[in-house]
């Protein structure tokens, strides 16, 4: 009998692309394996227009996929690491992290090549408090309007003329072959990315040895060191829901892991930053240290204030 592996995924175009990417990699590695994609509609997809922070955060996009794996309807779930909650349910874990795509935030606009060219008081679309906070710090005059929906919906709202430009993850645009819409990639100094941005993760049953062996070659250790450091920082900050937290790690040419973290007020009036370098093997400790320093400078007060908004 042919061996089968079932991939659970959300049905948004980006999620489907990511699941198909993993399916293609697995088929290339194992020509005899039958790979099936099981598209699921999550509560988060149904509630796309409500403020996510108020209805339970990002976990809403993964619960159905996790139940599918626990019930045996699927073997793995493919996620954007940015959207994977800190905790996993009993019986499931994160088993592989793929090589990271461009981690930057992208400026998308038909009118202005850079944000610096945007006229005083114009309106830019983003629903990310993290992007909003860093943008407002640079350009306090700019009006920021909420922008929800999948990548294609957001681009349509831009084209409808609601905004002079919008901010999106470069990785999503590149994967959907929309890279030509990127007018500028924001530097890590101007817009520190979200934890896990640009990386894809594979979740599976903790006890499933067969699946672990199948997906092991997709794991990219350098990306994993960085993403696990970012996630350790996020876990210590308790940044589960939609909060203005940024964190990005890189491996430097000398082999050191370099993690930068940021917590800010959504209006950009206050931004706390911290950074650390160290051995990638200690990435999670580095993440906790960056979080501790942010907390020592008052990050907990910022996060508490934001949760009450
Ligand atoms: N929050 C939705 C989401 N989750 C992952 C990506 C982009 C791809 C990635 O970061 O891996 C996006 C879209 C966006 O923020 O523009």
**Number of separate domains:** 3
Helix content: 25-40%
**Rough shape?**
globular
Low-confidence stretches: none
Q: Give the topology string: H per helix, E per strand.
A: EHEHHHEEEEHEHEHEEHHEEEHH
Family: Belongs to the HMBS family.
Modified residues (S-(dipyrrolylmethanemethyl)cysteine): 241
Pfam families: Porphobil_deam, Porphobil_deamC
GO molecular function: hydroxymethylbilane synthase activity
Characterise this structure.
This protein has helices at 13-29, 43-46, 52-55, 63-70, 129-138, 151-159, 170-175, 209-215, 221-237, 283-296, 299-307, and strands at residues 4-10, 34-40, 76-80, 92-97, 105-108, 123-125, 143-145, 165-169, 184-185, 200-205, 245-251, 257-264, 271-278. It contains 11 helices and 13 strands. The protein is 34% helix and 23% strand. The model has no long low-confidence stretch (mean pLDDT 94). Helix 9 runs parallel beside helix 10 (283-296). The chain folds into 3 domains: 4-100 and 198-219, D-Maltodextrin-Binding Protein, domain 2, CATH 3.40.190.10; 105-185, D-Maltodextrin-Binding Protein, domain 2 (3-Layer(aba) Sandwich); 230-307, 2-Layer Sandwich (Double Stranded RNA Binding Domain), CATH 3.30.160. A 5-stranded mixed beta sheet has the order 2-1-3-10-4, sandwiched between helices. It is α/β, with parallel strands linked by helices and 309 residues long. Bound molecules: ligand PBG. Residues 80, 82-83, 151, 168-169, 171-172, 197-198 line the site of the ligand NCc1[nH]cc(CCC(=O)O)c1CC(=O)O.
